[in-house]
Amino acid sequence: MTIQATWQPSQGNTICHLTNGAAEWQADLDASAGGDTKYPSPHDLLDSALAACTTLTLQLYARRKGYAVTAIHVSVGHDEANGTYTLKRDVKVTGELAPEILDDLLRVANRCPVHKTLSGQFSIQTSIA
After folding, report:
1. Which is nearest to 18 in space by CA: 36, 39, 35?
2. Are 91 and 109 in contact (CB under 8 A)?
3. I need a surface site. Which of 4, 29, 40, 61 has the fewest CB within 10 A?
4. How confident is the model over 5-15, as pLDDT tens digits?
5. Where does 42-119 sit in CATH, by number?
């Protein structure tokens, strides 16, 4: 799927409208740049992709393995320094889980598709019309 982003000055704000053809959502500038904090910033969207993918991957895996997971909570933040964007992910899994099951879930968290993508090399090809 391709993500489409649109904005028009006539909106009277800086909110960017996004769609993948099926779902719709919005993003805005950081508050420090005049954006509305009701909407995620582009960096929030990037961080949320890792949080969502981790949560969904662990959910599917735990169900398949029959692990007694009662809740999964993933928080992701980031730091930017010296040209490096460092994602900080904290995973909390609750339930009757032995240490070896938690180790297995950590291994799976580190293999979620977005984690693997963000850990790889990126190439961005841009055209303008």
Report:
1. 39
2. yes
3. 4
4. 999 999 999 99
5. 3.30.300.20
